[in-house]
Amino acid sequence: MNAALLRFLGAIERTLRQASPGASAQSRLGAVVLIHRFGTLLNPYLHFHCVVDCLFDVDASGAEVFHEARGLDPSAITAVQATVRQRLLREAQRRGLLSEDEAKAMADWAHDAGFSVDAEVRIEANDRAGLERLLRYCARPAFALERLREIDAEHLVY
């Protein structure tokens, strides 16, 4: 999981550097990551919710300098997804979790072999209410009590 997250955030950071005028090779990513281990049906489904806030450098005085990403388009997001998929399959193979044939077969699966990156949600810098809604969504628990219903004294339906 840590290897997957590091590769994912590294790919995002590199992409943002390329799209941020004035960003240096030492620019760092500012993000909040929430790790989910289950889907909405309580099925095992490891995925990350990442709220990427900024790319920044520190100047000679020690002050942060933030860089706005410009020109990010769907092709940049697709490239991040493809890079992460390739690196994770290679890492799983290196660790003995997948054979070479299994990794090649997974790379050819439909729907990008189960890897997806969605970067459609954007919150403006001063939209604190929007940011709070996004973070509440990302931090929601896997098991929602609102979905639990008692049908009789011995049975619950989720």
How does this model look, in words?
It is a single chain. With 158 residues, the protein is of the alpha+beta class. It has one domain (2-157). It contains 4 helices and 5 strands; from the N terminus they run αβββαααββ. The chain has helices at 2-19, 74-94, 100-107, 128-138; strands at 28-38, 44-58, 64-67, 149-152, 155-157. A hairpin with a 2-residue loop joins strand 4 (149-152) and strand 5 (155-157). Helix 1 runs antiparallel to helix 2. The radius of gyration is 19 Å and the shape is flat. The model has no long low-confidence stretch (mean pLDDT 89).
Give short descriptive properties of this protein.
single chain; 158 residues; alpha+beta; three-stranded antiparallel beta sheet; two-stranded antiparallel ribbon; 4 helices
Could you describe the largest sheet, including whether it forms a barrel? Answer: 3 strands, antiparallel
Q: What is the typical, i.e. mean, pLDDT?
A: 89
Amount of helix = 25-40%
Choose one word for the global shape.
flat
In short:
This protein has about 160 residues and is an alpha+beta fold. The protein is built from four helices and five strands.
